[in-house]
Design goal:
With about 280 residues, the protein is of the alpha+beta class. The protein contains 11 helices and 11 strands. Strands 1-2-3-5-4 form a 5-stranded antiparallel beta sheet, with helices on both faces. Strands 6-9-10 form a 3-stranded antiparallel beta sheet. Strands 7-8-11 form a 3-stranded antiparallel beta sheet. It comes from Micromonospora luteifusca.
């Protein structure tokens, strides 16, 4: 069977044959740690990206929602891929190929101008709409409790500290905006020194500061100049709230437990470091 198509369901293959009949799969961009298959395909002289989710996948549905509801500030500028076809029940979508190389691992990953541009783009996403959610904090706490109850390698004493801290938190109303959910250089492309955005499988309505959790734990920590440039582009610092600490704790728990489940030991180690940093000395 053609490259990558063996991982697609019968329904997904049928839809793909309907949408892009006779298309050729040129490259498999699948990450390997999750159930999503990502194929670069050519059809009628154009290039496309095909994403197909497995049985337990929720990323494709979220990505489709993002394309339909939130990406126009970027697609109107050519800074995000255009949706061509999508079927949420089949967990399949097709977008136009967006040229560029990943910022992660490139020389642009250490250039402040890249982060300034990423900040400007994120501000466009966040500015579109906002809602007040009275239950957000409680839902997020429950997710953290569920992670701590599942499989992981967090020490028992640390789990007890985490549970005690989360239990002590207030649960105020939260202001939610459209967020990317995985805002970091591995989801930024650069082409002719212009930054564009890909991968919307974690897009959802959340507080704006949540899109800074991964940058803060990784790139900002590596070089403060990148943080200053990003905030200059974004315009304000959305982390100036007590809720930021709560978000950091949740992100640390989620990182350590998710990475353990999928077998990503390096990312798991980062999660344990994040936990140690947010808890401080015992």
């Amino acid at each position: 069977m053609a490259l990558g198509r063996a991982n697609l369901s019968t329904r997904q293959r049928a839809l793909l044959d309907q949408w892009l009949p006779g298309a050729n799969a040129e490259k498999d961009h699948s990450w390997g740690l999750v159930q999503t298959t990502v194929l670069e395909m050519t059809y009628a002289g154009s290039r496309f990206i095909v994403k197909a989710g497995g049985d337990d996948d929720h990323h494709v549905e979220r990505e489709l929602r993002a394309h339909l509801s939130w990406l126009s500030p970027w697609t109107s500028l050519g800074r995000a891929p255009l949706l061509e076809y999508g079927d949420s029940k089949a967990k399949l979508l097709v977008t136009r190929y967006l040229p560029g190389e990943l910022v992660l691992g490139s020389e642009h990953a250490d250039v402040p101008a890249t982060y300034r541009e990423a900040g400007e783009l994120l501000a466009l996403l966040h500015a579109q709409t906002r809602i007040v959610d009275a239950d957000y904090e409680e839902r997020e706490n429950e997710k953290s409790f569920a992670c701590l109850s599942g499989p992981h390698r967090i020490a028992t004493s640390t789990v007890e500290r985490l549970r005690a801290e989360i239990t002590s938190w207030p649960t105020p109303e939260a202001l939610l905006v459209p967020t990317h959910g995985d805002w970091q250089p591995r989801n930024w492309l650069i082409h002719n020194n212009i930054v564009s955005i890909i991968d919307f499988g974690r897009a959802s309505m959340r507080p704006a500061y949540t899109d800074l959790t991964r940058l803060s734990a990784q790139d900002f920590r590596r070089d403060p100049k990148l943080e200053r440039a990003f905030l200059d582009g974004y315009g304000v610092d959305p982390r100036q709230t007590p809720a930021w600490h709560r978000s950091r704790v949740r992100e640390a728990i989620g990182t350590a437990t998710w990475a353990y489940r999928v077998g990503d030991e390096a990312f798991e180690a980062q999660g344990h470091r994040m936990i140690a940093e947010v808890l401080g000395p015992s």
